[in-house]
Write a structure and sequence with these properties.
By secondary structure, the chain is of the alpha+beta class. The protein has one domain. The chain is built from two helices and four strands. The strands form two sheets. Strands 1-2 form a two-stranded antiparallel sheet. A two-stranded antiparallel sheet has the order 3-4.
Length: 78
């Protein structure tokens, strides 16, 4: 069973659903950020920010089950 994404409007304020509309450039920026993440070892708590011309920001983070900022989202071993 997978982990559902945690989506927040700000830390601690969880959202159930979110739609993100990206321009072609923003989508490419996000893809490049994930390509960088997946192609080389990274520090725990990796994240990226995609900002549009109006200053709106999309923040995306990737974590592991033993990372304290993500640990509560993963099922505990039984």
């Amino acid at each position: 069973m997978g982990v559902s994404p945690l989506m927040e409007s700000e830390p601690g304020r969880q959202l159930r659903e979110i739609w993100v509309y990206l321009s072609d450039k923003e989508a490419l920026d996000l893809r490049e950020a994930f390509d960088d993440y997946l192609s080389e070892p990274t520090a725990p708590g990796w994240h990226c920010h995609i900002t549009d011309s109006d200053g709106n920001e999309l923040s995306v983070g990737v974590g592991e089950a033993d990372d304290p900022s993500f640990a509560s989202r993963f099922a505990k071993p039984s």
